[in-house]
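User: Last request for today: this protein with fe (ii) ion, please.
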Amino acid sequence: MALYGVLGDIHGNVEALEAVLAALDRRGVRRLLCVGDVVGYNADPDACIALLRARDTQVIAGNHDLIGTGQLGFERCSNKARYSLKRTRRRLAPASVAWLAALPPSLLIEDRFALVHGGVRDVQLYMSTPQHIRRNAEFLRADFPTARACFFGHSHEQRLYGVAGEEVRELPINGVYHLAPEQLYFVNAGSVDAQRKRSHKLAEFAVFDSSAWTVEFHRVRYDAAATEAKAAAGGYRITPLLDRLYTWRRRLLPA
Ligand SMILES: [Fe+2]
Ligand SMILES: [Fe+2]
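Assistant: Here's the final one, the structure of the complex with fe (ii) ion:
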């Protein structure tokens, strides 16, 4: 049992990842868990991978990691994601491709909590409603019968859900939350990358104490302007014209 930093949806944003790692260092958190989407959208996928590897982070594959390495197609991607992932495919170092390709789809840690990216059985599912959580709680009970908590990402919003039988409750994310041992929890630590967020440009993560069975959500500042400038210069941002072209192509040539 230990203190874990839980992060995900880094999306090649090394400024945001460095800010999160510095915040975790200040709190003395040494063990890191990552729920996937290490690459995509931003210009520093190799640097993000290097930082995670240097800290022996336990990482699972997100849809961007699978698409960026050609293990999954672009069919369920937005235009923005598709464009930046094409750039990511061209830029990733061979060693990064090999590392991403070897990531597991999920993990069970300490026999008590699971990491998944989107849904428990669908890496591209956005778990954003109590109905999604209810359905995925069934999958979790079937696939990870000993798990009492499930950490997920993909939807890029900090969320905490408690599940008791068929009832799903969304819980407050301010302060230290004590998880009840008899309940099941779904936890989204948020998105390290905040470039596409309108509400704020803060990198999100959580600290999970598997001894005390508590979770605490955090947000930290990073140099979002520097990230954006690098992404634009590196060709990771779709132009309005190409955006329209992608949409027309999608309508004319449905998958
Ligand atoms: Fe993501
Ligand atoms: Fe994702």
